[in-house]
Amino acid sequence: AKTRITNPVTQKRFILIIVCIALLLDNMLYMVIVPIIPDFLRSIGAWDTVTPTPIPGTNTSLYSNITNSSQDDVDVEYKNENVAIGILFASKAIIQLFVNPFSGTLIDKIGYDIPMMIGLVVMFIATTVFAFGKSYGVLFFARSLQGVGSAFADTAGLAMIADRFTSEHERSRALGIALAFISFGCLVAPPFGGVLYEFAGKVVPFVILAFISLSDGFMLLFVVKPYSERRWQMPRGTPIYKLIIDPYIAVAAGALSMSNVALAFLEPTMALWMEDTMHAVSWQTGIIWLPAFFPHVIGVIITVKLAARAPHYQWLMAAIGMAIIGLSTFIVPFCKTFGVLIVPLCGICFGIALVDTALLPILGYLVDVRHNPVYGSIYAIADISYSLAYAIGPILAGQIVQGVGFLNLNIIIGVFTLAYVPLLIFLRRVYDMTPQSHEDTILLTEEPATGLYQSVKDEYKRSQKDGINSSYKQYDAFGMDKLGNGRLDGPTNVEKSDSSDNMNGFAGSRTDNKAKSKNP
User: Fold this and answer.
1) What percentage of the chain's residues is helix, strand, coil (to nearest 5)?
2) Is the distance from CB of 141 to CB of 181 less than 8 angstroms?
3) Where is this region: Disordered (predicted)?
4) Per-residue pLDDT in tens (0 to 9) along the chain, 520 residues
5) Is 361 within 8 Å of 314 (Cβ atoms)?
6) How many beta carbons lie within 10 A of that of residue 214, not counting itself?
């Protein structure tokens, strides 16, 4: 078994499975509480004030689909319920926003496996608290604790994929698979939780998720233990604040956040609007997002296939996805039947798939060519982008609908989403960048290279760290005769103690790389 796990190809597959399960777990836990917690809090009397008001033809409570069905003429309004539940739902993303900068920096310093394990353990504890918690305060604590676990597990998982899958095609494919699991977790969790809560009680769905978390943790311990020494070989990562001010990273991160605004704002308001406009019943409001899983997966597959053939056009795929999201958002409020509404919602999820699948690999590539190839902080930024949308959505969406209406909410989201599309043009030349054009960054790290530089590192072994600079300049490891920098032009002094074998090895590397640079 040990030989099998230490095989690089098999080990990468196990890593991908572990990360996908962790992302599935996190997103199922994120959405499984939607059909459970509001009804559970009412059943335990969490809200003191109950005000019966006559129904003026339409319901006014955000969670009115969970009221007592025997009250045909009266809608029971629980004072401050919507605000309290909105804050409960958003607390996970809010905590995640604050923890992500710390988790990303920690991952850059100590590697990916330990933070991943921390995240799984914390999510196991949070899930257990959800299962047995019986008050609003305890459930709020569990939701916030989940945010801490997500900040570690999600960031470490995406960074681990970027680190282990070094070629752009492999990386895009692996990240696409991970995104499919994220989508599946979000969309299958509400019916999963609702059915089990109805027939087996509140504890069962959370116990199942806790068991999945525990199993994933044991898998991680079994797979990465022989590789724990890798963290001492990692170069020093670029600080997260420097990554955020990189204009290319800022544009990509902003797009990730903007593309999820529609989903973050529509999810908490869709059920009420469906009841008002099409008199939808509970099962319809519960499964309305489920069909959108299939176009999301199709979008992931299309983007991965096109990225393999034309990686330089990934920015265009993201722009098309953003435009589809904006246009679909305009259509939503004009849908009058359940079947018609599925179409724009599928369009939104299809567009999100295009944006996410195109931009997550771009973030990894930008770190490879413009910074140090350590991925904790960059995927912490990606996680922050997602969390920003889901932190404000559940809190503000209901208030905006009450203030300006559901139609105007969709118009606002659509306008801002379409307005962001032109900014993605700035990413059109990302894949024209090469590590050669950023060698100054490489030289200053004084650390062995990873990521895209792995193939160069495998060609030769540097005997002393002090000899890195001279090796780059004398033997031209990246196939560059001149960089346009005077201090690197001309010969350099190399100690006579260098062996002839090393000289031949470096010279061969130079010849091979020059040939590759002429024939990209």
Assistant:
1) 80, 0, 20
2) no
3) 479-520
4) 444 466 777 788 888 999 999 999 998 998 888 778 877 887 776 665 555 555 454 444 444 444 444 444 445 555 566 677 778 888 898 999 899 989 888 888 888 888 999 999 999 999 999 999 888 889 999 999 999 999 999 999 988 888 888 777 888 888 889 988 988 888 788 888 888 888 888 899 999 999 999 999 988 888 765 444 555 555 666 788 888 888 999 999 999 999 999 988 988 788 778 877 888 776 777 678 888 889 998 999 999 888 888 888 889 999 999 999 999 999 999 988 888 999 999 999 999 999 999 998 898 888 888 887 778 888 889 889 888 888 888 788 878 888 888 899 999 999 999 999 999 999 988 888 776 444 444 433 334 444 444 433 444 344 444 444 433 333 333 333 433 444 344 444 444 444 444 444 444 444 454 444 444 4
5) yes
6) 16
Tokens 């199922």, located at residue = 28
Indicate the domain borders of the chain: 2-45+83-428, 435-518
Q: Which of 365, 359, 491 is nearest to 432 (CA)?
A: 365
Calculate the dihedral angle through the C-alpha atoms of 438, 444, 447, 450, rounding to the nearest 10 degrees. -10
Residue type for 253, please? Answer: A
CATH superfamily to which 2-45+83-428 belongs:
MFS general substrate transporter like domains (1.20.1250.20)
Length of the chain, please? 520
| Helix (H) / strand (E) containing 16 | helix 8-32
Handedness of CA 74, 77, 78, 79 (dihedral sign): negative
pTM as predicted: 0.71
Q: Return the sign of the alpha-carbon dihedral for residues 31, 171, 217, 119.
A: negative
Helices and strands (DSSP H and E) totals, the chain: 21, 2
Write out the two tokens for 488. Answer: 């690197």
